[in-house]
Every structure is written in C-alpha cells, then in structure tokens.
Automatic annotation (TrEMBL):
The active site is at H69. It comes from Mycolicibacterium canariasense (Mycobacterium canariasense). Gene3D superfamilies: 1.20.1280.120, Catalase core domain. One of its GO terms (cellular component) is cytoplasm. This is Catalase. Coiled coil: none annotated. Keywords: Heme, Iron, Metal-binding, Oxidoreductase, Peroxidase. Belongs to the catalase family. It comes from the Bacteria. Residues 66-237 form the Catalase core domain. GO terms for biological process: hydrogen peroxide catabolic process; response to hydrogen peroxide.
Length: 258
C-alpha cells in the first residue's frame, strides 16, 4: 500500500556488514506456517528446520551471519504518519505522529562477502516501536512480486538454481524443469524482468512480501500490501565490491534518506 507516510534512516558504518536477526526472518518463510514432518504418513514433508538447513547444505555455513540476506547493514530512524491510513486501519502506528524504527538493508543470498550486483534482490526489514510498547516487523524486497507462491516452491527453486561447480552457473535443464512444474514462478519472473532495479538502495521501491487485512474503527476490513516509495534519487560515485552499501552510507552522511 502506497501512502503519504514517511520514514527516515540514519546509518553507522561497521567494520563488517553484519546480520540483524531480530529485524526480519528468512524471506518467504513469513508467508505462512511450514508443514510439520510426519514421516510415518508418507515422504518427509518440509519443515522450518529442513527449509533453513538447505541454505547451509547448498552454500555452506557462515557462523555469525543470517542464512539468507547475509550481507546487510543496520539503520535507525523514524516513521512519521500523516494519519491518512486511519481510513483503513485503526492500528496505533497509523495515527498521526512519529515512532522510532530499526531497519536493515540487505542483499539476498547466503554469502556475507558477496560482491554487490545491481540485479541482486535487495531487502529492507523494518521494526516499528509503537507507543503502547508493541513491535511491528515487516520484510520487504525491491521486486514487485515474489517468485514463489509457497515455501515448497522456494525450496525447490533453490535446488534447481544451485550453481554447477564446473561452470559456476545453474544447470539450464534443471531450471527449465522447475519452471515447467511451477508456471506461477515463470509468470512472476516476467513481471520482475519488466521492472528493472534502480541504481541504489536509497531510490529503491520496496514491496511487502505479504498482504494483510486492515480493520478500520468502523469494523470494515480491507486487504492491503505495503510499498515504501523513495522520496529522493540515489546520488553517488561509490565503486567497488560494496558499492551499493557504500553509496547508501555516503548519501545518509549528507542527510536523512526517506
């Protein structure tokens, strides 16, 4: 959902771009509960543990870092609501006023030292601290739709896209077979391809992974989906393996990003 509410972030450079596990969970796991394993009922079913372990099995163990979106940088800031969203939601965070937030900008993938690439999916996790002591947490990405409709689909896509040790690229036959079995992913990839990424974090639009039901004071319920739209263009001369993060930090040093 796009609206006139605004947020601003401030960053501090760390010696390493570390994970902030409290902000967001693994992308797509939050879309719904995973099935409980019941081996005696048939083939082993996908569980949260089996899902997350697959990242290590495919890409190795990296102690101290998240299993996905391992490369990232934390930020602090504020979220200021104009009150306009109270038309559809009675949630306290949408009442007029400002609340503190903790955020994390990240790149998808399991390697904490991966080189920044424009096409790599960017993530933004935000934790809202509401006046009544509650915490709101949301995970967003800079692609308009997520490639997979279920955790099982994500799991299967990881297997199909595993790089071949000889070529460093996924096996085309494996990916073709996966897409044939998952037409929803093939359709999503066309939508994603039609929306090329912006130059940097600061001018990226981030979309929520999930839709939610918002309830207004009058009891009316509306399905909504977040989007955070940038108020500025990215401006940087940063280069090198960390150019996306360096550009963000450089821009924040000149003033808040909103």
């Amino acid at each position: 959902m796009s609206h006139d509410n605004q947020r601003g972030f401030g960053l501090n450079r760390r010696d390493a771009l570390v994970g902030l596990a409290a902000v967001t969970g693994v992308v797509a796991v939050g879309a719904g509960g995973l099935a409980v394993a019941s081996d005696w009922l048939g083939p082993p079913r996908l569980t949260a543990a089996r899902f997350t372990d697959r990242f290590e099995q495919l890409y190795g163990r990296h102690d101290g870092f998240r299993r996905n979106h391992a490369k990232g940088v934390a930020a602090s800031g504020t979220f200021t609501s104009t009150g306009a969203a109270t038309e559809v939601s009675k949630a306290s965070v949408f009442r007029g006023g400002t609340v503190p937030v903790i955020a994390r900008f990240s790149l998808s993938g399991t390697l904490p030292d991966q080189k920044d690439q424009p096409a790599t999916v960017r993530g933004l996790g935000v934790l809202f601290q509401t006046p009544d002591g509650q915490q709101w947490r949301t995970a967003m990405v800079n692609i308009p739709v997520f490639p997979d409709s279920t955790p099982q689909g994500f799991y299967d896509r990881m297997l199909a896209s595993k790089p071949d040790p000889k070529t460093g690229k996924p096996d085309p036959a494996a990916m073709a077979a996966f897409l044939a079995a998952h037409p929803e992913t093939a359709a999503a990839m066309k939508v994603i391809k039609a929306a090329p990424p912006s130059p940097g974090f600061a001018d990226s639009t981030f979309w929520g992974l999930n839709a939610f039901l918002a309830t207004a004071e009058n009891g009316h319920t509306t399905p909504i989906r977040w989007s955070l739209v940038p108020a500025q263009q990215a401006s940087t001369t940063a280069q090198g393996d960390d150019f996306l993060f360096d550009a963000l930090i450089e821009q924040v040093q000149r003033g808040p990003v909103s």
